Amino acid sequence: GAGVSQSPSNKVTEKGKDVELRCDPISGHTALYWYRQSLGQGLEFLIYFQGNSAPDKSGLPSDRFSAERTGGSVSTLTIQRTQQEDSAVYLCASTRTSGGRVTDTQYFGPGTRLTVL
Amino acid sequence: AQSVSQHNHHVILSEAASLELGCNYSYGGTVNLFWYVQYPGQHLQLLLKYFSGDPLVKGIKGFEAEFIKSKFSFNLRKPSVQWSDTAEYFCAVNLKGEGGKLIFGQGTELSVKP
User: What is the pLDDT of residue B29?
Assistant: First the structure.
């Protein structure tokens, strides 16, 4: 079927505003990941979902960042009170699992480019 | 701390030259290994992966990589590059049996001159 999709593709916001980024994983993929790609920091893991629960949130950089997943499908990454250092490309990936274990590679979406002015 | 190191930040080659990009990781456990590629303006795509078995793995577009466990390395190779291979290449690792989060190297930008 279709690949991982993300929206919006680009988001420009002002410092201090909240933003929501959306990810639609590949149908049937129970594991979903958020990563951030920025100059100087490379690709960083943010959070992992297995179904609707997030057993690993270790990469979220501050409490301004949160994410949820509903229906085992769509996920939303929310950044509150955005700062200029939040400017980056936010990537979503999904993969299949079996018995709760990851059994395949991750397939990445096109990303959302966030610019905080 | 767990990390992945890519030795070359920017590599410039002429068409038909051979390519080898280095990747080393520091993990104590059993790992899965990946190379992803990001062509200009496109999203990350899988080039190849190693989960188990033959340590020499072949991927798309003539790329291959060899897992050398004793050296904690997973170097990417291609015998003859093309202009269309111009892209950024990322080595990544995850631990078997865990949630599968990928730890990425810093990336290597490859520029192939026609």
Answer: 82
